[in-house]
Design goal:
By secondary structure, this protein is mainly β. Helix content is 13%, strand content 44%. The protein has 3 helices and 10 strands. The longest helix has 12 residues. The N and C termini lie far apart (82 Å). The model has no long low-confidence stretch (mean pLDDT 86).
């Protein structure tokens, strides 16, 4: 039983044996080719984590990640809203697709089992939808289900909260800043 062989690869081998009297015999050289890998990758653990970095220009950062059971590239399609797009899967199936109308499309050609994209262009308090896809080196494709996420509202900094509290308590504080 041989393990850890590469798909679609030709292997050459010989068999030799000895009996109890130390007589040895060796076969002729033979070969075999392993079957091509026709199984699509399995996409699992699709996650989205969103954080707000407070400050004057609060920024929303969203991390979308997933894993696959074998080395694949990474494709992420996302957009604002939750309207269904039945043509998205067909467009993702074409490896040469560079843009998809009304979607943002990100690709990484590295072959890996862990996939990660960091998004910094999402609006606060908005709903987004996304799909992930992965191709292996034999062009076997998997596309995830549709996922959605809600970005948080921009949070006020502690200083903004204190000033707002003073403005509500002492009306004259507004006139100092203005």
């Amino acid at each position: 039983s041989l393990t850890n062989l590469f798909p679609g690869t030709r292997y050459t081998f010989q068999v030799s044996s000895k009996d109890t009297f130390n007589n040895e015999s060796t076969s002729e050289e033979n070969s075999f080719t392993t079957l091509e890998d026709l199984n699509p990758p399995k996409i699992t653990n699709v996650k989205s984590d969103t954080t707000v970095f407070p400050g004057k220009d609060a920024q929303i950062q969203t991390i979308i990640s997933w894993t696959t059971d074998k080395d694949t590239n990474s494709i992420l399609a996302y957009r604002e809203g939750v309207e269904k797009d039945p043509s998205l899967d067909e467009q993702l199936k074409n490896k040469e697709t560079k843009t998809i109308p009304n979607w943002k499309l990100l690709k990484k050609e590295d072959l890996t089992k862990t996939h990660l994209f960091v998004l910094t262009d999402l609006k606060p308090a908005s709903v987004y939808q996304f799909k992930v896809a992965s191709y292996d080196k034999h062009d076997n494709l998997s596309i995830s289900d549709n996922f959605s996420l809600l970005t948080p509202t921009k949070q006020q900094s502690v200083l903004d909260l204190i000033i707002s509290n003073f403005e509500q308590t002492f009306g004259w504080v507004k006139r100092i800043g203005g």
